[in-house]
Design brief:
With about 120 residues, the chain is an all-beta fold. The protein has strands at about 1-5, 10, 20-25, 30-35, 45-50, 55-60, 65-70, 75-80, 90-95, 110, 115. It is about 0% helix and about 50% strand.
Length: about 120
């Protein structure tokens, strides 16, 4: 089993920055990702990264503004959010996949952390 715990959410002004963290415990996670769910919208993919820090991917809406990274022996994944806009508001979830096969899906999820972008 895998346990994921997010932290770092909060209120940030438009144009500001925020760093989210996700701590993973249990089995080693091959690929970790961030998703977000805005009010009244479906959950959407934000960014993902493999265990060794390669194969990084971003949604078009955040590319160039957000950066995903892993640290501390692959037990943490971070999301650096820069130049945020009100459209970045939502609950941000950390997710993990144990294998290299995309078809296995992200089976492990954290409880989410709220990010609100507002002046």
């Amino acid at each position: 089993q895998v346990q994921l715990v997010e932290s770092g959410g909060g209120l940030v002004r438009p144009g500001g920055s925020l760093r989210l963290s996700c701590a993973a415990s249990g089995r080693t996670v091959y690929r970790m990702a961030w998703f977000r769910q805005a009010p009244g919208k479906e959950r959407e993919f934000i960014a993902a990264i493999n265990w060794n820090g390669d194969d990084v991917g971003y949604a078009a809406s955040v590319k160039g503004r957000f950066a995903i990274s892993r640290g501390d022996a692959q037990k943490f994944v971070y999301l650096e959010m820069n130049n945020v806009t009100p459209d970045d508001t939502g609950v941000y979830y950390c997710a993990g996949r144990l294998t290299s096969r995309p078809s296995d899906g992200f089976l492990y999820w954290g409880q989410g952390t709220q990010v609100t972008v507002s002046s």
